[in-house]
Amino acid sequence: MKHNYLIILSAIVIAILFSSCKQQTSEGDWIQLFNGEDLTGWTPKIAGYEAGDNFGNTFSVEDGIIKVRYEAYDSLRGRFGHLFYKDEFSHYKLRVEYRILDGQIPGAPAWAYKNSGLMLHGQTPESMQLNQDFPTSIEVQLLGSDSLVQRTNMNVCTPGTNIVMNNKLILDHCTNSSSEYFFGDEWVTAEVEVRGNDVIYHILNGDTVLQYSNPQLDERDHTYAKLIELNNEDKMLSKGTISLQSEGHPIDFRKVEIQILEE
User: Fold this and answer.
1) How many Cβ atoms sit within 10 Å of the Cβ of residue 146?
2) Listed range (17-21, 100-104, 126-130, 139-143) with the worst mean pLDDT
3) Mean local confidence (pLDDT), 245-255
4) What's the whole-number average pLDDT of the chain?
5) In a domain? residue 23
6) Which structural domain range is residue 221 located in?
7) Which of 5, 127, 235, 240 is the most exposed, fewest CB within 10 Å of its CB?
8) How many domains does the chain have?
């Protein structure tokens, strides 16, 4: 009788331990950052304008889609913009569904053709200078191809930052992924897995196309002194804002969602 009791007790303890371990390693639900109706929770910052000034209705919502448009612009004239979510994140998966449309705005640079991006581990919009083009951040490029230009998608660029690849500090501004080319205005699913300061993966339609680690502030950049102070004198980036880019080419986002990961 005693022997049977011990067997049952052991089974209960094992079940509890298994349940606890399973709970600790499970990931959270996907959380919608875009409610499908308006820009609640999001703040625009356009170069030359104060944070919160959505010049020319650059970012708008219509038919359940965040639209980036330039009807009120005569020319881009360096007015790069970003739409910031209100919270900062550290360990997470971010997934967006987007499409790049035709019709680059006059005055946009050639490199911005069919070009937008997701900015990760970024500074806050309030900490940006009035005329600052891009937030100091890690940029996941969203890129399109056509008869004029062919390039891989979900490359990484580093405005005010650096990354490490293959144990080497990368000082180049942009690094290409291994993706295929994407033509037309098809909807594309872009996902990034961000593990604090450890590693970041770029995942395109389910395939991992780029991996790097140790995102950090760049001592050569004019924002370094201010941001190193805001980051408690630590140049390594373990968290930050997420923003969507307006870089002179119209783009739609119909889903922006996040899954919080265990640290």
Assistant:
1) 14
2) 17-21
3) 98
4) 91
5) no
6) 28-260
7) 5
8) 1
Is residue 223 assigned to a domain? yes
| CATH number, position 123 | 2.60.120.560
> Of 40, 119, 60, 92, whose CA–CA distance to 250 is shortest?
60
Across the strands, what pairs with 85?
A: 42
How much of the chain, in percent, has pLDDT values that exceed 90? 89
Closest CA to 134 of 153, 149, 110, 116: 116
Average pLDDT value for residue range 45-74: 98
Among 183, 191, 187, 185, residue whose Cα is nearest residue 207:
191
pLDDT value of residue 28: 82
Phi/psi for 4 (5° steps) reads -60, -40
Smallest CA-to-CA distance from 221 within 128, 108, 89 is with 128
β-bridge pairing 207-217 and 199-204? antiparallel
Would 222 be classed as within a structural domain? yes
> What does the pLDDT read at residue 41?
98
User: Does residue 40 lie within any of the structural domains?
Assistant: yes
Find all residues with CB under 8 Å of 25, minimum gap 6, and list them. 262
Residue 166 belongs to what H/E stretch? none
Please tell me the distance from the alpha carbon of residue 94 to that of residue 92, in angstroms, as a whole number.
6
pLDDT at 27: 66
Q: How many beta carbons lie within 10 A of that of residue 30, not counting itself?
A: 13
